[in-house]
Amino acid sequence: MPTFGDIRCTMHRHGDDLLSAGLGLRGLAGLATPFAHPFSPTAAELRRRAIHSSWKGIADLDPLGGFGDVYGAVPDVPGREYTTFARLPHARSPHRVLVQVPDAFDRRKRVLVVAASSGSRGIYGAIALAGCWGLPKGFAVAYTDKGAGSGYVDPADGTGVALDGTRARTGDAVLEFEPEGLSVDDGIAVKHAHSGDHPEADWGRHVLDAARFGLAMLDRAMPEDAPFTAQNTIIIATGLSNGGGAVLLAAGDDTMGLLDAVVAVAPNVHVEGHGRPLYDYASEASVLLPAALAAPLFDEVPFARVAGLPLPAWALRGAALRAHGRLAAQSPVAQADEALAMLRAGGWQDDALRVAATSVSLDLWRTITVAYASAYLRRDAGRMPGGFAYRTQPLAGAALRATWWAEGSGVPPGAGIVLAGGTDLSLDPTLPGRLSLRDLWQDDTLRDAVRTTAAALPRDDLPILVVHGTHDGMIPLAFSAAPYVAWLRAAGRRPVFWQVPHAQHFDAFLAFPGFGERHLPLLPFGFAALDRAWQHLDLGRALPEDAAVRDARPRGAGRLTAGALALPG
Q1: Cα 496 to the center of its chain, rounded Å
Q2: What is the C-alpha separation between 76 and 135, in angstroms, rounded?
Q3: d(CA 365, CA 289)
Q4: Measured CA angle at 129 (ends 125, 135), to 5 deg
Q5: DSSP-based three-state secondary structure for 536
Q6: Which candidate, 252, 129, 175, 184, places its Cα nearest to that of 392?
Q7: 72, 266, 525, 551: least CB-packed within 10 angstroms?
Q8: Is the pLDDT of residue 126 over 90?
Q9: Catalytic hit among 54, 241, 283, 286
Q10: What is the pLDDT of residue 246?
Q11: What is the pLDDT confidence band of residue 290, given thresholds at 50, 70 and 90?
């Protein structure tokens, strides 16, 4: 069982609230509110900025995207927050948990929504999904950062992040992450990559810890209605991306029957012997996909062409891979075709590959595999594989450092932190680091670590709904949700599986040129799945059919309409 540290309780009313920190939909869609004192923002200012950045990183708030009109809403939800650091018995570092209890909590329904952050984000990383759906209904919401988050430690001034989000020196406060023996030469330390705890193996336990903390905080908030238990409180777990994977891991770890339903959206999940784990296909895409982008398949793909022409970097990658003995073809055209054929042979589908081009342009594949390799190999900041390190830019001062907790993604670079190392002086300077990360997939220690992240079989009567976009280029459906669902069904389980046509992984990307016209947002389908899970639990309504989203279509050049979504009834 986990241990919980000191608990911080804050009230959020009168111009401040649980769902948007008082910003409302217009404020969330706009620019971040400046800090009154940039070098020393208050805890309230940091919380507002963290909520703002969490919304902007997940939801499509563009005027054409339909949020607040076709789906979703951001009403004022006053209430209380309880937060603490929780620690598993075997872990060196804590994970952050937070519970939001609305003043209008429905004491008759008694519902707790439990959510895990997407990616490696901080504690508010699931607010656009779980908070947006649950809080306006009068449900409490419990969050976990699942052992990741943006509590970055800077050895240059010996600071990390305290419970309230402000920066503090080691010894002056209990910090979110306190690595030992960190020197200035080691660079910035990040909990997901450098804690040594391999947090992904415990994602399911982190979700269950958040559920337990949520029940305890409901007891504290409403002692007259206590006790809140798994027997008298409905608990629905949900998450997106890594958060979706975390709640599916929790479903398998839930031997005590805490959870009443699980809704996973675009989950990063794998089962031993089924599909492909993230590190495998991400390290492959990091190496091969740039070369493949010169192929005609990508002629109409955003970010794959400039003025209708392939970028020179694509041909350079093909030539560099041939020089390293990774491709046999001699001409640029043949090298692109060979790289594309290798990706297809590995199970990549063309719809996913087209969207994955964006992740090449944003350097997401390298960023992800660097952090995950460090986590799997349990390396600290000074011993990252491939010679990589997270370092501050020369002009990154206290003002940028103060924003890290509120704006960081949990995996640098960003906000004055760069990813250094793994390069040479060639025309394709990042390839050596990428190849070293790809070759680590043959390392037995890394593979053993990945095996510990595989999902276990949930109990037979647990409703599980899985929602995934058919055009997901970051967590391809063919590698994750589809084999997971097939495995469940082969074991006699009855999951609901919505494969959403034209939906990709990042709703926030729909504001990019060429994206919104081609793709649909995934969040509204997550909300709809949560609605159906709740109706099943509350009203006994039958769970929906898999084919319920077959009529969805791209929005085109205009505003998103309800007809384009064709949401299940």
Answers
A1: 22
A2: 10
A3: 10
A4: 105
A5: helix
A6: 184
A7: 551
A8: yes
A9: 241
A10: 98
A11: very high
Output the pLDDT for position 164.
97
502 burial type by CB count under 10 A (0-12 exposed, 13-18 middle, 19+ buried): middle
* Distance, C-alpha 200 to centroid of its chain: 12
For 103-123, what is each residue's pLDDT tens digit? 999 999 999 999 999 999 999
Following DSSP, what letter does each residue of 20-41 receive, concatenated?
TTT-HHHHHHSPPPPPSSTTS-
Known catalytic residue: 241? Answer: yes
Other Cβ atoms less than 10 A from the Cβ of 119: the count is: 23
- pLDDT category of residue 436 using cuts at 50, 70 and 90: very high
What's the chain's average pLDDT?
A: 96
Amino acid in position 513: P
User: Cα–Cα distance between 391 and 483 in angstroms, integer?
Assistant: 38
Residue with tokens 């997550």: 526
Q: Name the nearest CA neighbour of 491 among 457, 454, 455.
A: 457
CB 52 within 8 A of CB 403: no
- Map residue 276 onto helix, strand or coil: coil
Segment 473-484, tens digit of pLDDT: 999 999 999 999
Contacts of 179 (CB under 8 A, 6+ apart): 153, 189, 194, 195, 380, 381
pLDDT of 547 over the 80 cut = no
Residue 39, token pair as written in the block: 């070098």
Reported for 347-350, long-range contacts at CB under 8 A and 24+ positions apart, including other chains, are 347/276, 347/281, 347/476, 347/478, 347/479, 348/281, 348/285, 348/476, 348/478, 349/476, 349/478, 350/297
pLDDT tens digits, one per residue of 487-507: 999 999 999 999 999 999 999
Closest CA to 121 of 150, 99, 97: 150
> Checking phi first, is residue 40 left (phi over 0); if not, alpha (psi -120 to 50) or beta?
beta
Work out the average pLDDT over 269-279: 96
- Tokens representing residue 395 in the block: 């002009």
Write down the pLDDT at residue 568.
Answer: 82
Round to whole Å and give the CA distance between 440 and 438. Answer: 5
| Whether the Cβ atoms of residue 297 and residue 506 lie closer than 8 Å to each other | no
* Per-residue pLDDT, 545: 87
Q: What is the pLDDT of residue 302?
A: 87
Rounded CA gap, 537 and 463, in Å? Answer: 9
Which residue do the tokens 């296909």 mark? Answer: 281
List, as one string, the DSSP characters of 181-244: S--GGG--B-HHHHSSS-GGGGHHHHHHHHHHHHHHHHHHH-GGGPPP-TTTSEEEEEEETHHH
The pTM of this model reads: 0.97
The pLDDT, as a whole number, for residue 548 is 75
